[in-house]
Amino acid sequence: MFTILFLIFLAACFAAGATGALFPPGPWYDRLHKPRWTPPNWLFPVAWTTLYLAMSYAAALVALSENNGLGLALWGLQIALNTLWTPVFFGLRRLKQGLYVLVALWVSVAATMVVFFNVAPLAGWLFMPYLAWVSVAGALNYAVWKLNPDAESLDAQSLD
After folding, report:
1. How far does Cα 157 stand from its chain's mean position?
2. In contact, 13 and 5? CB cutoff 8 Å
3. pLDDT (tens digit, 0 to 9) for every residue of the chain, 160 residues total?
4. Measuring CA to CA, which residue among 107, 113, 118 is closest to residue 67?
5. H/E/C letters for each residue in the chain?
């Protein structure tokens, strides 16, 4: 049963991750000013694959535990917000709104982690790297927004 649950949660994660293929960064993102500490492009798929595996394992652990309702509901919220960020930031090219989504994502990941710790401690630990990565993503989103105050008002077609 654990393996089936794990694969279901993993499918949800990779569905969220598929938004990266639907809304790739492309030339628009390449032209934006970014802070020096921006991770290299190759790191993003490696990090997300690792995080999705950990998130799925954690969710499967919680799904098999008692008193799992709140934790699974929060897991659903965080994966929905995770899915939303890419279309907002890369699809709509709304840096400020992307930051709002990331703040909501950070809160939902933190809440999920706390609840997971109470239900299945290993699941809580497995969410810690995700919270750290979302923290970095939020700082990066903020920095890119501040470094590119005109990015949202530029004609999207002229940047592609």
Report:
1. 27
2. no
3. 999 999 999 999 999 999 988 999 889 999 999 999 999 989 999 999 999 999 999 999 999 999 999 999 999 999 999 999 999 999 999 999 999 999 999 999 999 999 999 999 999 999 999 999 999 999 999 999 999 998 876 655 454 4
4. 118
5. CHHHHHHHHHHHHHHHHCHHHHCCCHHHHHHCCCCCCCCCCCHHHHHHHHHHHHHHHHHHHHHCCCCCHHHHHHHHHHHHHHHHHHHHHHHCCCHHHHHHHHHHHHHHHHHHHHHHHHHCHHHHHHHHHHHHHHHHHHHHHHHHHHHCCCCCCCCHHHHC
- What does pTM read for this prediction? 0.92
**Residue for token pair 């709104």:** 97
Residues 40, 5 contacting (CB under 8 angstroms):
no
Six token digits for residue 52:
């999705």
* Cβ atoms < 10 Å from Cβ of 47: 16
Measured CA distances, 85 to 26, 67, 143 (Å):
16, 29, 16
Alpha-carbon distance of 114 to 41, in angstroms, equals 30
Q: Which residue type, as a one-letter code, is found at position 130?
A: Y
